Amino acid sequence: MNGMWMSGMGALWPLFILFWILLIAGVVVVIGWLLRGKTDSPLEILRRRYARGEIDRETYTRMRRELQEDDR
Questions:
Q1: Which positions ≥6 away from 55 have C-beta within 8 Å?
Q2: Does residue 70 sit in the same domain as residue 51?
Q3: For the chain, how many structural domains are there in total?
């Protein structure tokens, strides 16, 4: 009886390894996805601030021009 139990568990070890590999890969992918979404360009942040009404058009235009000059 004990020999049958051991042989049954022996056949499952590749599934345990596969499970952990998939779990770790999934965590890495989710972390990468979350970090990638947090890297907005300064120009994109400026656009959002203008769209929310935090800054007026004159300020937006001036800051956009300054940011575009910095890229050159």
A1: 46, 49, 63
A2: yes
A3: 2
